[in-house]
Amino acid sequence: MKATGLILTLIITSLLPFHTMGQGVDEWLIAGPFQVKKPGFIKGKNIQGEAFKDQFILSQQHFNIRTIQPREGDAFNWIGDEKNWSTYSVSDEGFVVFHSNENTTYQVLYSGFYVESEVLASYSLDIESPQMFEVYLDGQLVTSDYTHSENGGSHKKSAILNLKHGKSFVLVKSLYIPGNSPSWKLKGSFQSDASFPLSVSTSPESGMNIHHLLEGIKLGPVSLSPDGTLLVVTYSEVNTKNGENRSWAEVKNSATGRIEQSFRKDGGSGYRWAPQGKKLYYTVKDEFGSNMWVFDFETGKEYTILEGIENLSGFELSPDEQFLVYGISEKEDKDATSSLKYMDELGNRTFQPERETYLFKHHIASGVSTRLTFGESGTQLHDISMDGQYIVFSTSTYSPTQRPFSLQSMYLMDLNSQHVDTLWIGFRWGGSASFSPDGKRLLVQAGPDCFGDIGRNLGDQPIANNYDNQLYIYNLETGSVDPITENFGPSVSAATWHPVDHHIYITAVDEMYQRLFIWDEQSRKFNILPTVPEVVGSFSVATESLDAVYTGTSLGVYNKLWMVNLETHESHLLEDPEANTYKNVVFGNSEEWDFTTSDGTKIRGFFLYPRHFDPSKTYPLIVNYYGGTMPISKSFGGRYPMDIWSGEGYIVYVPQPSGAIGFGQEFSARHQNNWGKTVSDEIIEGTQKFIDAHPFVDAKKVGCIGASYGGFMTMYLQTQTDMFTCAISHAGISSISSYWGEGYWGYAYSSEATGDAYPWNRRDIYIDQSPLFSADKINTPLLLLHGSVDTNVPLGESLQLWVGLKILGKPVEMIQVEGENHHILTYSKRIEWHNVIMAWFDKWLKDMDHDWKKLVPKSTL
Asked: Which residue of 3, 537, 574, 625 sits 20 to 30 Å from the alpha carbon of 775, by its own alpha carbon?
């Protein structure tokens, strides 16, 4: 609706860009006026030595304005006075003039507009009024003027707005003082020499930005009580001032959503349900160690069952709740005065204290603990049988002369007699094990090589990729193995053998998705359990009913919590904590797009359209890939948030090259002894075919980006083609041999990427396919990003390529993120890192170098 009583100035009411140079504000969103009062009790001066002033009425925060994102028609609730946000246009003089309803009372008026910038720029906003006012940007006070005129004139105050990418809300809060004769009016205008696109409107609709992704309440893991009636949900939220992340848990009624208990105690972690009833277990650390607490929802009591355990490394409650098994991580005693460290095992290379975990049984009623394991090898608990009689546990020992350089042995212990049976010993590729409901079998999750040839389905490929997880059923009486996923393409992430219907419920990577599957033992078939989102995150089943909960996302769909009936397969929404964060965000559409390579391989993929896509225009393209063992899922957010990129006006194409899990064992096994050779050909061919098939892509503006193995792929791709306009490598590997020897897990990962191939017997891989040794072939402007304390892929992998390209005079820049490891996790650094990525793409793909010059002023490119 349009109103005429109040007028302000906005520069352009639509999303049309303008160049700021004395431009006025032509439209505003207005709420009010609302009556406010002086304090009822005023006596003397305040603690600052100030007498009461009218400005204190204005500066009082009557409600939280930090989260306000109004749109026309939204209700504004005041005490006994509800009004709607309305759009007002300015007069020819550029002022909005408003006459108060009653000039004998103090009244406050809220006026605002949205401003959207495509760059990280500063603009000067002038506000002019006879009344006192305060100016806020996204809830933060940026300037104020507490003077008021009594002669009909007005006063002006400037505010510097440091704008982020995307939309921000500017709020002007003004005060009418009773008895004032001047008109209540406001005028706004921007003053800036910057010539960058800026749009102003009264609409809150925007694209997604990095603040949407990082800020606000985020869903974490979820768990359902045995009877399915209670649900524990974990949440987290970042403190935007200090960057610290706070997490907590809430227990809710799964039918009504009512909060039954909130756990906001500092240090609480490891929330899990007891196998029976409605008891929640969790741990809290204090100065004496870890304490295990129980909250009983049937009695309303909270109490401890285990106290003062130093170096607790986990616990598992027995199904009959008579005891629990917990682990203690014991550290090797070292001479604290010596600076020498003997490197006796491959694991010592991480320079962490040597620790081994041992198992203990704690009898709850008596409070007595008994040691279960001891010796040269640490032990890992896998599961406790339903009758509480047995545990299955494993040991791991280093085996430096054969990949994967460790050996697993699996054992079964009778807890009554403490007799131990060996299930297998010295397996090169081990797995995790859990009991079947009847306790006679084990469900083993492991790679294709765990039990030798049993379960392999590699086609013509000679070596399996053991990141491609399979499921086996191991018979405890006979030792026989049933490879139930031998012909199942998806890669298993987790599995639960349900004690009610005896089906196995599986979370699995299925091509570009993470889906839920059900395995029926009688039919020996896998069926999809339908879910609302395409990519499932946390999944939990009730053990006494056929109910389950899951979280999940899709492109353009943030994380939500759903409940599903395992019989009807019907889902309903339980939690949507980010609804307010994303209520005004507009996402671009997405589509799947596959192609067939010249050798006949089908490569799956998908792409995102820009927000407000116009098929008559052309857009720059970002190609994102990993190229290693994991596909890039069609999920929301993440380290490389494609929804943000598309919101910034880019087409984003994501191919899923050979070697990724989720497409079957033969496809994943192509990762072995390849190191980018096949993948680079597929990315190049796919990108060219994608451009040819989509005329709205600007073929001269194509960027690419990848991280870790994907960072290696970025480096390697530039040695194979000049088709990209620019490229970004985060934590990339430039020399396969140096990564193999120096990365904390380099040799271990290489066992699945270069099986039985080493620098001394496969120079064609370690040298010829290392980007460093072909640096002279790189001509594409390349940005290298790396955490300064990366232990996975050492910083030197980017540094040595940067040195080589600098010596060669190639277009290269490098930025290291101080104090960050393989993932950039610190809140403020994550924002800087993201902004640098966008600035590099904007510079080369949009011919907009403003942000790059602002963030990297010393850059020579």
From this structure: 625
**Structure token pair of residue 335:** 């001479």
Polymer length in residues for the chain: 861
pLDDT, residue 101, reads 56
756: helix, strand or coil: coil
By CB neighbour count within 10 A (0-12 exposed, 13-18 middle, 19+ buried), where does 545 fall? middle
Q: Write out the two tokens for 793.
A: 């892929």
- How does pLDDT run across 35-69, given as a tens digit for each residue? 898 998 999 999 889 999 999 999 998 888 888 89
What burial class does residue 521 get, using C-beta atoms within 10 Å of its C-beta: 0-12 exposed, 13-18 middle, 19+ buried?
middle
Instruction: List strand residue ranges (DSSP E) for 602-650, in order.
Output: 602-603, 605-608, 619-624
Pairwise CA distance, residues 680 & 682, whole Å: 5
CATH topology of domain 590-855: Rossmann fold (3.40.50)
Smallest CA-to-CA distance from 85 within 208, 1, 206 is with: 1
pLDDT by residue (tens digit) across 784-825?
Answer: 999 999 999 999 999 999 999 999 999 999 999 999 999 999
Domain boundaries, the chain: 2-41+50-206, 590-855
Same fold across 2-41+50-206 and 590-855: no
Where b means 16+ CB within 10 Å and e means fewer, 560-585 reads bbbbbebeeeebeebbebbeebbebb
Q: Which residues make Cβ contacts (< 8 Å) with residue 846, sequence separation at least 6?
A: 620, 649, 701
The pLDDT mean for the chain works out to 91
> The tokens of 304 are what?
């401890």
User: What is the C-alpha separation between 839 and 855, in angstroms, rounded?
Assistant: 8
CA 736/CA 797 separation, integer angstroms? 9
- Beta strands 619-624 and 697-707 are parallel
Residue 90 has pLDDT above 70, yes or no: yes
CATH class of 2-41+50-206: mainly beta
pLDDT band of residue 10 (cuts 50, 70, 90) is: very low
**Cβ(453)–Cβ(403) below 8 Å:** no
DSSP string of 183-223, one letter each residue: -EEEEEEEE----S-EEEES---B---HHHHHSS-EEEEEE
**Residue 21: which pLDDT band, with cuts at 50, 70 and 90?**
low
Q: Is 150 exposed, middle or buried (0-12, 13-18, 19+ CB in 10 A)?
A: exposed
List 517's β-bridge partners, or say none: 506, 528
